Amino acid sequence: MSHSLSLSHQCYLQTLPPISHNASFTCHHTPPQKANGSRRSPKLYIACARGNNRASTPNKDDYHSTLKALNSKGRSPRKSLGQNYMLNSDINEQLVGVAGVEEGDVVLEIGPGTGSLTDTLINSGAFVLAVEKDKHMAALVSERFSSTQKLKVLNEDIVKCHVRSHISSLYGNTKEIDSDNRKAKVVANIPFYISTDVIKLLLPMGDIFSEVVLLLQEETALRLVEPSLRTPEYRPINVFVNFYSDPEYKFKVERTNFFPQPNVDAAVVSFKLKQPSEYPYVSSSKSFFAVVNSAFNEKRKMIRKSLQHICTSLEIEEALESIGLLSTSRPEELTMDDFVKLHNLITKE
């Protein structure tokens, strides 16, 4: 597991004893909760230390301001849309820091919600394209940032959104954006249930995005970044991720930082996108992933059996042996490079 954040970004949330009033910190209290019929005392979470000589300032996107924003539209988080709003602005700062967002960058944000992360991105100097499926939240974010020219809100489902055309349109039609600028980035706290769809949509776009930074369910983050061969966690999505990017686990985010609080913790993952010229050579990416998926569809079968619809078992055995693998190999035993070599040997141009 890689933790490449600077010291200023390593802000760990933990239960602490009472703190002196002379100390300056940004603090969050979780309301008392009942557990097994008893009431537990509130916990104090330290988001990030401020300088001792600097007065602490209220967090604009804390629990109360989030509720206020939702109430202004008569809204409540919709479980069907996986809406869990970030309450800790310091984590938003870390997200933006991981992506290295700078003045003049174009950033795609997915599911801006009440605009907590949007605010941090705009203050970093970025032009933000925010895609929000919930029309009420799209209206809320548009109103909140109505005075800035550095935000465009689309009321669309990201999975059905023509991201490439919208990004191209921004570079061509927005005066504030330098068309010769570096590639766009993605920074987003996405609903957990669309994680795989978003990854499959964005990672092949290395020609327009340089990096994708996502806040994901921690279990998903670990499975994507640290899969081990010969384990149930190793799946076709791992081959896909490594074909198009270099993924890196950045840091864990406790579930107490969200409203409503989910049943799982989250984690931030950075996907450094490969340029099309850097993709492993295959005659057809469509054909390549069809081979990978077919192999995993019958995971416990040997590859010489699961890929018989492509060529004979004997040809598959010979191909496996020629790349240094056993003829009895199963899909969970092959790395991405192994699959690339196998594909190129058994498929016809």
UniProtKB/TrEMBL annotation:
Domain of life: Eukaryota
InterPro entries, A to Z: KsgA/Erm, rRNA_Ade_diMease-like_C, rRNA_Ade_Mease_Trfase_CS, rRNA_Ade_methylase_Trfase_N, rRNA_adenine_dimethylase, SAM-dependent_MTases_sf
Top-level class of the enzyme under EC nomenclature: transferase
A single GO molecular function term of this UniProt record: rRNA (adenine-N6,N6-)-dimethyltransferase activity
Annotated Ribosomal RNA adenine methylase transferase N-terminal domain residues: 91-275
Positions that bind S-adenosyl-L-methionine: N84, M86, G111, E132, D157, N189
Enzyme Commission code(s) on record: 2.1.1.-
Keyword annotations of the record: Methyltransferase, RNA-binding, rRNA processing, S-adenosyl-L-methionine, Transferase
Keyword hit for Disulfide bond: no
Pfam families registered for this protein in UniProt: RrnaAD
NCBIfam families attached to this UniProt entry: ksgA (TIGR00755)
Family that this chain belongs to: Belongs to the class I-like SAM-binding methyltransferase superfamily. rRNA adenine N(6)-methyltransferase family.
The name this protein goes by in its record: rRNA adenine N(6)-methyltransferase
Organism: Pisum sativum (Garden pea)
